[in-house]
Amino acid sequence: MAGGGCPSAGRDKKLSGEPGIMSQMGKTRNLVLGLVTLVMAGSLTACDDGRAGAEGAAKQLASSLSALDVGQIAVDGKDAAAANDELKAVFEGLDAKPSVQSGDVKLDGDTATFPLSYSWNIGSAKWDYSSEATLKKSGDKWAVQWGPALLAPQLSEGETLSVKTVPAQRGQILGAGDAPIVEDRPVFRVGVDKTKIPAEQADASARAMAALLGLDAEEYANQVAASGPQAFVEGLVLRAYTADITEAKIKAIPGGASILDSMALAPTRTFARALLGSVGQASAEQIEKSNGALRAGDTTGTGGLQQKYDSLLRGKDGVEVIASSEAKSEGETPGTKVFFSSLPAPGTTLKTTLDLKLQQLAEETLAGVGPASAIVALRPSTGAVLAAASGPGSNGYNTAMLGQYAPGSTFKIVDSLAMFRNGATPDSKVECPSTLTVDGRTFKNAEGYPETSLGSVPLIDAFAHSCNTAFINARDTVSQDQLESAAQALGVAVEAPKLGADAFLGSVPGAAEGTGHAASMIGQGKVLFSPLSAAIMAASVGNGAPVSPQLVLNADAAQNSSPGATPTESGSASPSSASAAAIAAPASTKPITKEEATALSSMMRAVVTSGHAGFLAQVPGAPVGAKTGTAEFGNDDPPKTHAWIVATHGDLAVAVFVEDGGLGATTSGPLLKTFLTAAG
Predict the structure, then answer these.
(1) With 0-12 CB in 10 A as exposed, 13-18 as middle and 19+ as buried, what is 324?
(2) Which contacts of 85-93 are long-range, i.e. CB under 8 A and separated by 24 or more positions?
(3) Which stretches does UniProt call biased (Low complexity) (predicted)?
(4) How is domain 173-351 classified at the architecture level of CATH?
(5) Would 51-152 and 173-351 be classified into the same CATH topology?
(6) DSSP state for residue 664 in the 8-state scheme
């Protein structure tokens, strides 16, 4: 009685025994069992129509597609291994795995159809679509009917999918007055176009191009070999052709090509490079650390502000998923069609306080300096960083903002403020012997110190001529923690919440004894400044109140930007006990007052009018106040020295530093004069 492939119900054998009641009971029981069998048979026929098997097969297909592995499922009319190879080839270029869900199964005899919902994360975009799948029943198994449309609608035989990045317009970096610093400028992308040469020519062309561009031939040849037959393999980006690299020389190489493009660039190759960073193709390391935000071929920032604010500047790239097919006959162009696209979102402009004229002037002033060097210029009234230039001897390091060096006698500005707070005035008498011994260590004045300023002299005179022994003598009345407090009162070694860039803001230990305390009084020992922190100190004197520097004006817009690199210890600098962000000034620290600043300004002016920076008296415009500094370092005999000078000039404060520079007055001083005179 059962049908449709359902198992038949079993029948009881005829009951044996005595006739009568037992016979009647047997007939009744057989009737009941027969009815039950009929009902069960009808039920199984209705349920077992193959739906459970088809739904299981549908879910298994969706799961296998999600894993990009269909090698274990039944495929109708095709080898499962061949289908698996085809699956991987189609999706390999997407460099991702989809999430695939099967929908409601519709049965029609031995055929089952259902939708497959695909969801891909392609870069920062999401690509969702549905395809239709068909199962055929063969015996007791359901097998999928394989075809390219199963993987994506309109996908044809032989086509493969790949992702093309649609670059977002990178945000500009602006300077003071919104003057463009980094903006799109024309460039030439030079390399080998593999579509223009036979495969066997690629290696020779790559090596010839590497020789022309000055690249590592083996490395570039490997890049060309690893690229697909349709690839243009970039070797170098040029702002302009040169005498050595001309368009004619590029095209003379088989497959050589030069593509006109644009790139976010500063006015010159070296302009504020250590501060701004650069932009180029993401490295393998950057891609790995980006958590999927970067893909091969993407453009990203490296170093400086370009890296720190990369996510703000980069915007969000668009993507295109394209299907490509190989040419079916010789001379036929391979076909492509777009399956999905998302529009790019342009990056945000980064606004800074950099003055293009002063930055360029600072770099030109340092152009001939061999050792690491820096010029930092601030506007005391606002704290705006107008220039932060690191010379060619810095070899790309941001000496201006990250350098950690003993500030030498420029630190006597801090000493003097501490002495004022203990009752001294510029006219107070101090003792300035030619030498002074502290705990067995002998300190002396700089070579050429005038004998007329030895002995008992006014503090202003000792400051103007930079008497080391006079300030070391003050150690008995100025404690180390008072030095720390005075430095913080001048904006040094405290946080700079408006700066918006990585910087070393100074380190002045709050405890030191004996020779350590004595060395601190002349800006050595464990006292460390960057050229930026030295400029902050001078700016606070010029402003009559502590100056907090500001470089990036819209840093708040980049709360989700990638973190900047941790500032590292510079060249010859000793390790610092303070972090790169410095420390917050204690609530008990008293900021410098107008009266204190006026007294310090008079002493800085005396350095120009009667001290060893008289050459600055010729600078036109507002009177210049200055303080030189020379700090010994290393183990050479005689020791090498850092050369410093800081100055105020109207609403301008400047610090000039040369790492291995002799005396501050004779090395950094002339650089400062050149800068201030041209700055106007």
Answers:
(1) middle
(2) 86/146, 86/148, 87/151, 89/160, 90/148, 90/151, 90/152, 90/155, 90/159, 90/160, 90/161, 91/151, 91/161, 92/160, 93/160, 93/161, 93/162, 93/163
(3) 565-589
(4) Alpha-Beta Complex (3.90)
(5) no
(6) I
pLDDT at position 284, please? Answer: 83
Q: Residue 679, class by beta-carbon neighbours within 10 Å (0-12 exposed, 13-18 middle, 19+ buried)?
A: buried
- Token pair 């800085």 is at which residue? 604
SS3 content of the chain, % helix, strand, coil (to 5): 35, 25, 40
pLDDT for residue 452: 86
Burial (CB count within 10 angstroms: exposed 0-12, middle 13-18, buried 19+), residue 21: exposed
Query: pLDDT grade, residue 619 (50/70/90)?
Result: very high
Question: pLDDT per residue over 100-122, tens digit each?
Answer: 999 999 999 999 999 999 999 99
pLDDT band at 182 (very low <50, low <70, confident <90, very high): confident
pLDDT per residue as tens digits for the range 639-653: 899 999 999 999 999
H/E stretch holding 442 reads: strand 441-444
Residues with Cβ within 8 Å of 406's Cβ and at least 6 positions away in sequence, in order, are 523, 524, 525, 527, 528, 529, 573, 574, 631, 632, 633, 642
Q: Kindly give the pairing relationship between strand 75-76 and strand 141-145.
A: parallel
Closest CA to 666 of 648, 645, 680, 646: 645
Question: DSSP assignment, residue 665?
Answer: I
Question: Residue 402 and residue 582: Cα distance in Å, rounded?
Answer: 12
How many whole angstroms separate alpha carbon 196 and alpha carbon 211?
A: 20
Superfamily of domain 356-553+567-679: DD-peptidase/beta-lactamase superfamily (3.40.710.10)
- Neighbour count for residue 555 (Cβ, 10 Å): 22
Q: Helix 412-420 crosses helix 480-489 at what angle (to 10 degrees)?
A: 100
State residue 602 phi and psi, 5-degree precision.
-65, -35
Q: Which amino acid is at 118?
A: Y
Q: Is 3 left (phi over 0), alpha (psi -120 to 50) or beta?
A: beta
The torsion defined by the Cα of 202, 205, 211 and 212, in degrees rounded to 10, comes to -130
CA-CA distance, 418 to 231, in Å (whole number)?
Answer: 67
- Tell me 390's DSSP state: E
Domain boundaries, the chain: 51-152, 173-351, 356-553+567-679
Rounded distance, CA 559 to CA 341, Å? Answer: 28
593 has a pLDDT exceeding 90: yes
| Length of the chain in terms of residues written | 680
3-state secondary structure of 259: strand
> Taking residues 249-253, what's their average pLDDT?
96
- Please report, as a single letter, which amino acid is at residue 643: A
- pTM of the full structure: 0.74
pLDDT of residue 293: 77
**What is the phi/psi pair of residue 531, to 5°?**
-55, -35
User: pLDDT for 432-485, tens place per residue?
Assistant: 999 999 888 888 888 778 888 899 999 999 999 999 999 999 999 999 999 999
The class level of CATH for 51-152 reads alpha beta
Cis (ω within 30 of 0) for the bond into 638?
Answer: yes
Torsion angle of alpha carbons 571, 577, 579, 581, nearest 10°? -90
The phi, psi pair for 648, rounded to 5°, reads -120, 140
